[in-house]
Amino acid sequence: MTDPDAKPALALDLRGLKCPMPALRTRKALAGLAPGTALQVRATDPMAAIDIPHLVRELGDELLASAREEDALVFLIRKA
């Protein structure tokens, strides 16, 4: 992981959504971003801890950081 201080161009609040919606919404958001752009995703579904990193690897994008903040998992992703 590199540059965890990257400022996200877009932040998705997916708290309350259940699998597979966080991954599907993240995929859609990444598809609309320009290369090099950062996306922050916040989700409460426990499966997001597996699904989001897997999605990022599958798409060839970069997971810059992941953390747990209060009730949510937070991911910082850079579009390849």
Automatic annotation (TrEMBL):
<feature type="domain" description="UPF0033">
    <location>
        <begin position="12"/>
        <end position="36"/>
    </location>
</feature>
<dbReference type="InterPro" id="IPR001455">
    <property type="entry name" value="TusA-like"/>
</dbReference>
<dbReference type="Pfam" id="PF01206">
    <property type="entry name" value="TusA"/>
</dbReference>
<dbReference type="InterPro" id="IPR036868">
    <property type="entry name" value="TusA-like_sf"/>
</dbReference>
<protein>
    <recommendedName>
        <fullName>UPF0033 domain-containing protein</fullName>
    </recommendedName>
</protein>
<comment type="similarity">
    <text>Belongs to the sulfur carrier protein TusA family.</text>
</comment>
